[in-house]
Specification:
- By secondary structure, this protein is α/β, with parallel strands linked by helices.
- The chain has one domain.
- It is built from five helices and eight strands.
- The strands form three sheets. The chain has a four-stranded parallel beta sheet, sandwiched between helices. A two-stranded parallel ribbon has the order 5-6.
- Strand 3, helix 2 and strand 4 form a beta-alpha-beta unit.
- The protein starts with 12 loop residues before the first strand and ends with a helix.
Length: 175
């Protein structure tokens, strides 16, 4: 998949290991200490964009920008609400950055045809591989209502996604 560069007026925020597919993204968000502990060397070597987390230890230890995270559902308007998922935290971060139109890519919220847990390769051990899709989909519904109330348009451009709380669209048409 090829995305246009930022001259067309958008910012690309990637979540976790998606930076491997889009190393020239504007920002990378990962909320988990264990992910940063495992991946920080590769991120600092291969990724030039801004690096963000809600985890205080990761921010300090690996020199990453930190946004305060609060363990609440929905959308945070001065900090991020955790929602149990780095992808939803990244949506909240994009909102805090001022984005009011978000296109989601890779938000499949189900196992792939061969049992894949992500649209990128599985996280290496010892990172947790449990997927609680039902819980995340429920939390996304709350987040979607909050975003709509704040006049933030979110379109899920992930073909075959199980996440139905956001309208579906085709990336090429939405850009």
């Amino acid at each position: 998949m090829t995305l246009p560069d930022s001259k067309v007026g958008f910012q690309l925020v990637v979540v976790n290991s998606t930076f491997l597919r889009f190393p020239h993204a504007h920002a990378l968000y990962a909320g988990d200490f264990l992910w940063w502990k495992t991946m920080h060397q590769q991120v600092h070597k291969d990724f030039r964009g801004e690096k963000w987390t809600q985890d205080a230890t990761s921010a300090e230890r690996y020199k990453i920008n930190r946004v305060k995270g609060i363990n609440k559902p929905g959308l945070g308007t001065s900090n991020i609400h955790l929602n149990g998922n780095s992808a939803f935290q990244a949506i909240n971060l994009a909102y805090l950055f001022g984005s009011r139109r978000l296109l989601l890519i890779g938000f499949d919220m189900k196992l792939g045809p061969n049992g894949e847990k992500h649209w990128h390769p599985d996280h290496p051990a010892p990172m947790v591989q449990a997927q609680v899709f039902g819980e995340w989909i429920h939390k996304a519904t709350i987040l979607a209502k909050d975003l709509a109330a704040m006049k933030c348009e979110v379109i899920n451009c992930t073909p075959g996604s199980a996440l139905s709380c956001f309208p579906m669209g085709e990336l090429e048409k939405e850009l």
